[in-house]
Amino acid sequence: MSEPQQQPPGTLQAMRRKPDHGEDSYRGCGRLQGKRTVITGADSGIGRATAIAFAREGADVVIGYLDEHDDARDTAKLVEEAGRKAVLVPGDLSRREECEALIDTAVRELGGLDVLVNNAAYQMTHETVEEIADEEWQHTFDLNITAMFRLVKAALPHLGEGASIINTASVNSDMPRPTLLPYATTKGAIANFTAGLAQLLGDRKIRVNSVAPGPIWTPLIPSTMPPEHVAEFGKNTPLGRPGEPKEVAPVFVLLASDEASYISGAMIPVTGGKPIL
């Protein structure tokens, strides 16, 4: 069954083979009870799976997303069905004012902030350097890494001892795919940003970690890769398949929980067997 090509960042509604976000399988046990969280890119993919898991573990969730309103409303419904508060905040996080507005809304609606998950990202496949426009290069950096800096800076006045910041890196931070040059470059920057920030915030008892997914089946794939790449997506991993978003979310749960009280500065791979050195 071929997957229809989409315009980035893609939507769940247009996908023939739907990703599994854990809608029917994730069972929580109160590991994040009462934690007030922001998750960017939470309309679909890893962000949605993380929102579902967080809510079922007892967290309230601010759902940051670009403009995929139907997908985001579906995520909010799943959060609310878990008995937790969901707040929808659309906006382009490549803009500083939108980053600040997201955090301001979270603090106002939830009464504070305990966990920040920086997950939103942009990628596009290019076969040559020449076809990468300056504007696309800049946008990729603005959204993928500069937004993380701005969100952290806006969130810090509201984060207390025991708070957690989790950034989505990638297997590309260690093994960059050449056809994803701008994206892969930002993911390397995220790995270093996370490691440095963890050291800067250690004395405040705020933990900072990253998750490095390998090939995960999300709307970003059919909207940013040519059909021939989509058809082979994930088959080159040792497990021989792409991962599902539900297979990444438990790592975010761990890092957000008090069980990870001595984990900071780490990058945890979820790559289907591809090593990250």
TrEMBL record:
Asked if the record carries the keyword Lyase, the reply is no
Gene3D superfamilies found in the cross-reference section: NAD(P)-binding Rossmann-like Domain (3.40.50.720)
- Report the GO molecular function annotations: oxidoreductase activity, acting on CH-OH group of donors
Which stretches does the entry tag as region Disordered? 1-27
Ranges of compositional bias, category Polar residues: 1-10
Database matches in InterPro entries? NAD(P)-bd_dom_sf (IPR036291), Sc_DH/Rdtase_CS (IPR020904), SDR_fam (IPR002347)
Leader sequence range is: none
Q: Which organism is it from?
A: Catellatospora coxensis
Question: Could you identify this protein by its name?
Answer: NAD(P)-dependent oxidoreductase
The yes or no answer to whether the keyword Oxidoreductase is present is yes
Q: Which UniProt keywords apply?
A: Oxidoreductase
Family as reported in the entry's similarity comment: Belongs to the short-chain dehydrogenases/reductases (SDR) family.
Instruction: State the organism's lineage.
Output: Bacteria, Bacillati, Actinomycetota, Actinomycetes, Micromonosporales
Query: Which Pfam families does the record associate with it?
Result: adh_short_C2 (PF13561)
